[in-house]
Amino acid sequence: MKTFDEKLNIVCEIFENLTSSEQVETIKALLIKCQPPQLNTVQEVLQTQLLYDAVFSQFLPQELITKIFSYLSAGELSRVACSNKHWRDVANCDVLWQKFCRDKGWLHYGIDHDLSMEQPSPRSKGQLIVTGSTDGTVRVWDVFSGQCLDVINGHSDSVTCLQMMDTEVITGCADSIISVFEISSATCKKILNGHEKGIIDLKCDGKHLVSAAGDFMIRIWSWPSGSCQHVLSGHVDEIETLSLHEGLVMSTSWDSSCKLWDINQGICIQTLSGHTEIVFCCQFDDVKAVTGAGDGTLKIWNLTTGECTDTLIGHQDDVYCLQYDNDVIASGSADSTVILWNHSGECLRVMDGHIGVVRCLRLMNGRLVTGGDRKKIMVWDGKTGDLLNVIHRNPNLLHLMWISDTKLITASPESPGVITLLSYW
């Protein structure tokens, strides 16, 4: 009677003498015969074997690992960080990245500012960032030093939206008032009254200021005089957002519709009906519009006829953000996915990786930057959807996000409010 060790040696010897394809088939046959406890053992062994290349670094001094990694470029180090969680932790070494930031002159970036606010709304221009908050103040920040240059008071309620215009900042407030402040002196130059409920959104193109409020109304103001030219009515529920393009404004609403308005004439050109839930986001140009809604779909519209030409189905939950360029349409959803579509409405790629809602995204220079819950900002190739970088140092929940070629600004609504400046490329 042979012992177990003798039997094991015979089995191993037979296995070693098989061809590669025969070995694969043998393994498959054995796995089919295995019971759950045996499969768990196989999994544990495989995990150990597959992670061996990462585990060796745990036995090296951190100084030696840092020295080895210092010979890598920023791009190579980013690719190492994308391989798995262990290598990401190893590669996210401040000493390594400080060198790259010093070479680029970015050492002042990456500072978190405690603004003692709940819902900051940043707008950036040049070397300044202006933020508004539920505490009723507007703060002006220096991008490079991270210092608060001034605090602008004068609001009796939360600042819900704002926009910088050269040396001035326009603010919308929950008390239904729009104010215009001189940034350098922090003094109020103008107050625009007319809305009956809190301001939800405002946009200015240098000739006209467009505002939307909780009274379901849109007002067109002459800029910079501040005189009200038109009052636009038509929505039957609260307006969600405004978007401007060459003398036109598009409004999205909780009434499931979008409306396209002529700013100069103050008339509704098209009403886009077809969504069954709130329309969260939109973008439009001379010929078409793309909208995303709480029904989980995107729609492409012909603005000449007002007809829906395509309905993009793929998300499993609310579509919170979208943007398109000449090549693709990108969308982010509460289902934690980002999807790239072509302009014919075909799904090109579904990108996973976010945990929780994808609240904001930006397409710029061939890159797609997406932000969501759980401290995660992801950088993708804007055409292929390949993952290029993952950033984990932003606040837990993103409210708003702006990007340039190499840097981004995020706003977190969690108390205390935080504005974060990061280099992502």
TrEMBL record:
Protein name per the record: Putative F-box/WD repeat-containing protein 11
Pfam families: F-box-like, WD40
Species of provenance: Stichopus japonicus (Sea cucumber)
InterPro entries associated with the record: F-box-like_dom_sf (IPR036047), F-box_dom (IPR001810), WD40/YVTN_repeat-like_dom_sf (IPR015943), WD40_PAC1 (IPR020472), WD40_repeat_CS (IPR019775), WD40_repeat_dom_sf (IPR036322), WD40_rpt (IPR001680)
Gene Ontology molecular-function annotations: ubiquitin binding
Domain F-box: 54-100
Listed GO biological process terms: proteasome-mediated ubiquitin-dependent protein catabolic process; ubiquitin recycling
Keyword Signal: no
WD repeats: 126-151, 192-231, 232-271, 272-311, 312-342, 351-390
GO CC list: cytoplasm; nucleus
Taxonomic superkingdom: Eukaryota
Entry keyword set: Repeat, WD repeat
